[in-house]
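Work through this:
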Amino acid sequence: MQRSLQRCFVVRSELPAMRHRIALAVIVGLIGACTLAPVQAGKRPAARIAATMSADEALVAAREAFARNDLPRFEAAAAQAEGHPLAEYLEFWRLRLQLQPPRSDAAPGASDAAIRRFIDRHPGTIVADLMRRDWLLDLGRRGLWSEFDGEYAKWVLRDDDEVHCYASLGHLQRGEPAPDAREIVFSVRRFGDGCGALFDEMARSGALQPADLRARLRVAIETNGPDTIRRTASALGLDPTAVEAALSKPSRALAQSPGSEIALIALGRLARDDPAAAAQKLQAGLAKLRGEDLDFAWSQVAAAGMRRLAPESLDWTRLALKAPATDETWVWLARAALRAQDWTTLRAVVARMSESGRRDPTWIYWTARAMRESGESAGAEALLRTLAGQFNFYGQLAAEDLGRLTSPPPRAAPPTEAELAEPARNEGFARALEFYRLGLRLEGNREWNFQLRGMNDRQLLAAAEWACQRKVLDRCVNTADRTETEHDFRLRFVSPFLDELEPVAARRGLDPAWIYGLIRQESRFIMDARSWAGAQGLMQIMPATARWIARKLGERDFRVEQLHDLPTNLRFGTFYLRSVLDDLEGSPVLASAAYNAGPGRPRSWRAMLPRPVEGAIFAEIIPFNETRDYVKKVLSNAVFYAALFSGEPQSLKARLGLVAPQPASPSELP
């Protein structure tokens, strides 16, 4: 019971602190559902909702009931929210609930007419397009291809693979060409209803031949998708018992002299847990693999090894250069070569990537560096010039390699009054602000971003300025980030509360530009931001870390809620940032990684280095995707902030510095 109550309260506590009155009323309405005696499986308790709520409180309660797929409680709350400025969302959520499969109380298609009326009443809105997307999923499940085709052509977002899979499935079932079917079946990481049905149809009809199925099995092994492995193995006619054994007990499965497909499944699984053990079995010939199967197996061992920064990863990479792998694998093998600064192997690996992989700024940059190391200066400079105008980590590094430090571009002319009047008239922006007022950022961001479609640079700058004027700083930053030729970096890199931050930074001996770069990445300046893991406030401090900081600072009366107060969050965040910087010998790269992943991990990553490396190499070989992206963006941000604050060009490489191997040792920091 205590755990159930905690779950109910955590969801509502994510509302901003300034919304306590709304949140409290909603919680009161939720307590009944959370404290009722257990009911039989499949049955819902009677709807319990606060007898009297404001329209705001009722709308938030209805959103909560929708998220819980609780139609009775939704209706009880929605009845009190009629007339709200966001009332169209009540109908949208109601129709969405009616579409949720399976609903035994509704005949298939019972909501079709109501959905059509809703879409027609709200043309050109995000809510209509979201409704159309969910309706397309329902039409696809029912195989109503004529209706599906009509709505698919009008769908704007194009952001759901399952819908695209149903589109291809409809063509195949009617004997029509489906040119996108193979690409999407190979690209999705997991098969939902639509993509699973498309895969099954392609396997049944022969559109996927045995060689194609084996290739798809390799992709599933690369992406570590057990369900996709099972489905593909079934299409290949593999023994389900052997497949389960390979997934759950790979070493034992390999000892049974399995066929090549089962051996690859088992080796891929074993490599994830113990790449050295998988390498040993390959070297001993236990898997009895040959040709491309053996090459692929080595590629999985090498990729898994590099995810753990295993010293042998480069040797394993050299055994895998002919593997029939995808970019999912090649990027890890490229990092193995990069760590060792083996430029020849790096170029060989990048050459095996797809065209889109080779065009990624990461691998354009490191290919140029490899070319320069081999004396191909002209070719290297040509590649670097393709990146040097980009406002990102590798664009900054490329420019610096060409002799240009980081400076913001010329500032565009400020938006005119007429230009600022456009976002003020935009009903979607008004709905977004209403959602932000209620603490419903997901819906607000969807509304806001939908309005940006097709805007030119002047319109984007006006929308960004308008957002900044209303203190919606994350939308200000993200909107200004979209401009292509006219830019205003004072909007891209906002610096609110500078008067409060500068003395706190000075007290800790920290560069304000680095702090702003970190806040921009952590919270986008959302004061009451809260991550899925529980980190809170501008500098995203975990409650346990905050309590440790409070003890260090002697603040005995500290409460976690204070992390949403600007002075407390800045004081605690800068104290911890200084602590990790000192703990890691003053390296901004290591300290930024520690702020995101904890101080112990950068120490262990540094210990695995074979030799000193430049900070850019260390940042790229960080084995956690989130932390790698975080470190690069924080330091890129910091350089832009420093250039804006100082008015002088800045060096990203100087901030990155060098990282030298040191024996791993425990950190006393949380």
About this structure: The longest helix spans residues 625-646. The longest strand covers residues 613-614. Residues 1-47 have pLDDT under 50 and may be disordered. Residues 499-659 form a domain with the Lysozyme fold (CATH 1.10.530.10).
